Amino acid sequence: MKITQFLFLLVIVASAISCKQRTEAEKIVDAAIEAHGGDTYEQVKIDFDFRNIHYTIFKSPTAYEYIREFTDSTGTVRDVLNNTGFTRTVNGVKIDTLTEERIGAFSRSVNSVAYFAFLPYGLNDPAAVKTLVGETEIKGEKYDLIRVTFKAEGGGDHYEDEFLYWFGKEDHLMDYMAYLYFTDGGGVRLREVSGVQEVGGIRFQNYLNYKPADKDTPLDRMQELFEAGSLEKLSEINLENIRVEALPKN
Q: How does residue 16 score in pLDDT terms, banded at 50, 70 and 90?
């Protein structure tokens, strides 16, 4: 083999290795996903109740389907959000009169519940941009603090939202998260894990949901305000009646 050919092959190999390298932030998220459920997330159907609404969540590396079912004054409502779009049926009849605005609102609502229930799975979405902020400490525990933003392309309707995640340095578990959002007037929130359920190989977490007095508080101040006891408890995020069904891989 000529020296030029050998050097060319070295460049190709080095380039391939470089492409496969993970940043430190990506490695931390990888470890967190593994600690919370790992490969179990990749082909699974999950059922749970949240605030008197029943959810069925299916995810795979290439497809998803989120269903919520509840009863109101109109009857039995079934919302379905998947790769092809959103549909609503009432008492088994498809509703074709929904405006784009209502479709968007319903879709965001369903997607939000599914997103938070599956965390930290989803943080390796191609649109997610992860940055290691640094090491920090809360209540005597050390954490890796990761900032997540989203690219406009593939980042969904909420791509401008910004998130912070606190992953334990020893156990890689996500004990806290905070986020900045812009819908419905915008604001910031911080969630603290309040309970854990291990079902079907996946770690599901309940949260206490906090808000600051000023909705325009910078996201980066939320830890400081939390530790100072300056945040108001807004609500509790509790998943109930969780069931996990592993699906055969294609």
A: very low
Chain centroid to CA 206? 14
Structure pTM? 0.86
Each residue's pLDDT tens digit, 87-141: 999 999 999 999 999 999 999 999 999 989 989 998 988 889 999 999 999 999 9
Span 70-88, pLDDT tens digits: 999 999 999 999 999 999 9
Residue 153 in contact with residue 127, Cβ under 8 Å?
Answer: yes
Which residues have a Cβ under 8 Å from the Cβ of 50 and sit 6 or more positions away?
Answer: 113, 117, 237, 238, 239, 240
- Among 53, 44, 37, 107, which residue's Cα sits nearest to residue 240? 53
Greatest alpha-carbon span in the chain: 79
d(CA 162, CA 177): 11
CA distance 40 to 203: 10
Contact 95, 105 (CB under 8 A): no
Identify whether the C-beta of residue 236 lies closer than 8 Å to the C-beta of residue 208.
Answer: yes
User: Which CATH fold would you assign to the domain 24-246?
Assistant: outer membrane lipoprotein receptor (LolB), chain A (2.50.20)
pLDDT band at 151 (very low <50, low <70, confident <90, very high): confident
